Amino acid sequence: MSTRQSFDLQLMDLQQHILRMASLVERAIYDAVESLTRQDTVLAQKVIDSDDAIDEFLNDIEHTIIKIIATQQPIARDLRVAITGLKIIISLERMADFAVDIAKITLRLAGEKLIKPLVKINEMARLAQQMVKEGLDAYVQSDVTKARRMCGYDDDVDYYFHEVFEELIVFMKNEPRCIEQASHLLLVCRYLERIADYATNIGEEVVYLITGSMEDMN
């Protein structure tokens, strides 16, 4: 096996590790919102417990990338592959942290009747999850068009964020006894909005990987 073939295999293996980490993060986001919607404290605790495995992936992949850069000294696109991988796992880890934050709110609200249906929050979550999935698809397929299109969904997430924000502010003014729960739901919206922002970061990294140019798509 040539040195080039060996290096290509290392990069393919790196991408597979990133996708396995991404799979855990996507699951954590889905389960966190499900736990809140169903007020399922067991599922919420599962999300919190799963964060250790995601952190282990982060550390292992980060170590692999540093080793690749140190031993192979990649240049041009090969270097961008390594740097992009590093930035993507950092974005994924931050998303997982927000999923844990949502799960912790589920635990805090355990036993309380929700003050409103979570329809728009669920829609924010669905869009954020779709952005993560499509961002990773764009990464695997080296698809700039898909990456840019995915980033466009961030405007929809922001729209729902402001809608729910306004609703909850009105709710707190009219029902002071609900201020604490409404504040927690505001945080959930904020966490989902930030997850969408980090998905956009992945899209920007895909564009950088393919074109070599940085674009601000947030």
TrEMBL record:
Plays a role in the regulation of phosphate uptake. It comes from the Bacteria. Keywords: Cytoplasm, Phosphate transport, Transport. Signal peptide: none annotated. Belongs to the PhoU family. The keyword Transport applies. Residues 18-105, 121-206 form the PhoU domain. This is Phosphate-specific transport system accessory protein PhoU. The keyword Transport applies. Homodimer. One of its GO terms (cellular component) is cytoplasm. GO terms for biological process: intracellular phosphate ion homeostasis; negative regulation of phosphate metabolic process; phosphate ion transport. It is found in: Cytoplasm.
